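Hi support team,

I submitted a single chain yesterday and got back a structure, but I'm not sure I'm reading the token output correctly. Could someone confirm the output below corresponds to the sequence I sent? I've pasted both exactly as they appear in my results page.

Thanks,
R.
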Amino acid sequence: MTKAPILYSFRRCPYAMRARMALWVAEIAVELREVKLADKPPELGEASPKATVPVLVTHDGVIDESMAIMRWALRDNDPEGWLAGDDAGVVERNDGPFKHHLDRYKYPVRYPDENEGDEAAFSHHHRTEGLAILRELDALLASNEQLLGDTRGLVDIALFPFVRQFANTDRAWFDAQDLPHLQRWLEGHLASDLFKAIMPKFAPWRAGDEPIAFGPHLGLR
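Hi R., thanks for writing in. Yes, this is the structure output for that exact sequence:
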């Protein structure tokens, strides 16, 4: 029997979420190792010097970028045609400028050298900048069910966890914004069977723990 790939993950990390969703849709079972970010197991750093989730240890090597994990999984099996909905530019805008503003909106205390002692104003500025990018996504969704068409694709799953994080920072404020198409899109992904499937809670992994099989069929491919 072939040994399953090992996925180091953290349940609430948006990068890890999108990797888990791609692996699940591709029907690739993995051995899941939940990581506590404040107490990372040494095996994570041994697998990847970056020591940040997600990290996928495959039969052929280590993949330690979430988008690379997604594309690796989908090249193996892409039953919903997600790769046809790939747009590197949209993903890069999310992972670059939007993530920059999201982090500073959500965690202003982490940027004392930038916030000039006024965390509230700093957070508000970055919320406004992030909202401008979300308005661009709302415009894309005005004529499509999903970002690049009427069926979910790679870009939708790649961006969804970050939009979720932005929305949850102040959900009442987010819900009051004029983003009807984006809000509809977000609620659809939050309610999806796919998202529910990849969000169970697991205790942090330590060497010697019983392996946790993670995948739609819980078998090895």
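A quick pointer for reading it: The beta strands are 6-9, 30-34, 55-57, 62-63, 212-214. Let us know if anything else looks off.

Best,
Support desk
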